[in-house]
Amino acid sequence: MAAVGVIGSGTWGTALAILLSGNGHRVDLWSALPEEARQLRETRRHPNLEQVTLPEEIRVTDDLEAAMGGKDLLVMAVPSVYVRQTAAKMRPWILEGQIVTNVAKGIEETTLLPLSEVIGQELPGARIAVLSGPSHAEEVSRGLPTTCVAGASSRQTAEYVQSLFMNEIFRVYTSPDVLGIELGGALKNVIALAAGIADGLGCGDNTKAALITRGIAEITRLGVAMGGKAETFSGLTGMGDLIVTCASMHSRNRRAGILIGRGYTMEEAMREVKMVVEGVFSAKAALALSKKYSVSMPIVEQVNAVLFDGASPKEAVKELMLRDRRMENAGLEWEEQ
């Protein structure tokens, strides 16, 4: 049995706390909001996970020192926009060599850093790992079969994280490609916004398939240019996560996109979804990275145009469809010219 502190009591943090407790570990779940912590303690219910009850064994607290003290593993489960400030608050109580596993998905807009590097800057003595994949909190909390990937620079660290999370309904693979895992998890949210916008416009399955396929092509181009491995983007944390986020109504990014396609502004859509829409925060970073690495990302460009430049969703679709003619895979050769 391990002692685990889950830092962040959103749906994903809560779902993972339930999973880890079910695996026999001693779990503390931390909320930044005292009132939220009190409600979770008293009701044992999360308002966005209505079908599940928080086990009594899970201790809910708003005391960060108590949540971190004596823990074998810390799980960073706050929204991406709060990762740096939360990690900075954790610094006084972090232990040298303590494992911190990031499960948030995003890129820091101001620095263009993946979140593991943000955490590493704030907690330089920690060993950083990531856990990612096609894994909606609503399904994991209910015990539905799910697969994820634990990534770390050290095999020992990745396998330790794998051993703590894995059970008969939650299968965990390992990978050394931390950068690729994180880029896949962050960038798929931007493509999911595009998929939702297309749904809101009334486009069909053909459009969804095109966005998923061309979306993973964009993600892979940028990921490889930045040093990620192409194999990662065809796996669970690339194509797998992209498919589930573009297709499921559990996806807050897709739901926000649907509303935008129906005429809502970005702000109106985010208020309606009532949770952090990570793709909105990753979109600008993705566009900036595409320019920094000279990588073509037309879907990302059009999502930014709709979100921040006042472009209409219909016009964005038209711009994508009327781009210059080209080969699907430029690396293939013709037998005849």
Automatic annotation (TrEMBL):
Transmembrane segments: none
Annotated function: Catalyzes the reduction of the glycolytic intermediate dihydroxyacetone phosphate (DHAP) to sn-glycerol 3-phosphate (G3P), the key precursor for phospholipid synthesis.
Domain (Glycerol-3-phosphate dehydrogenase NAD-dependent C-terminal): residue spans on this chain: 177-318
Species name: Candidatus Enterocloster excrementipullorum
InterPro entries reported for this sequence: 6-PGluconate_DH-like_C_sf, 6PGD_dom2, G3P_DH_NAD-dep, G3P_DH_NAD-dep_C, G3P_DH_NAD-dep_N, NAD(P)-bd_dom_sf
The protein, known as: Glycerol-3-phosphate dehydrogenase [NAD(P)+]
UniProt: NAD(+) binding residues: G8, S9, G10, T11, W12, G13, A137, R252
Pathway(s) served: Membrane lipid metabolism; glycerophospholipid metabolism
Chain ranges of the Glycerol-3-phosphate dehydrogenase NAD-dependent N-terminal domain: 4-157
Active site annotation, chain numbering: K188
Binding positions for sn-glycerol 3-phosphate per the UniProt entry: K105, G133, S135, K188, D241, S251, R252, N253
List of residues binding NADPH: T11, W12, K105, A137, R252, V276, E278
Catalysed reaction equations from the record: sn-glycerol 3-phosphate + NADP(+) = dihydroxyacetone phosphate + NADPH + H(+); sn-glycerol 3-phosphate + NAD(+) = dihydroxyacetone phosphate + NADH + H(+)
Name of encoding gene: gpsA
Annotated EC: 1.1.1.94
GO MF annotations, alphabetized: glycerol-3-phosphate dehydrogenase [NAD(P)+] activity; NAD binding
Annotated GO biological process: carbohydrate metabolic process; glycerol-3-phosphate biosynthetic process; glycerol-3-phosphate catabolic process; glycerophospholipid metabolic process; phospholipid biosynthetic process
Primary site of residence: cytoplasm
Keyword field: Cytoplasm, Lipid biosynthesis, Lipid metabolism, NAD, NADP, Nucleotide-binding, Oxidoreductase, Phospholipid biosynthesis, Phospholipid metabolism
A cellular-component GO term for this protein: cytosol
Positions contributing to substrate binding: K105, R252, N253
Intracellular or extracellular location(s): Cytoplasm
UniProt family annotation: Belongs to the NAD-dependent glycerol-3-phosphate dehydrogenase family.
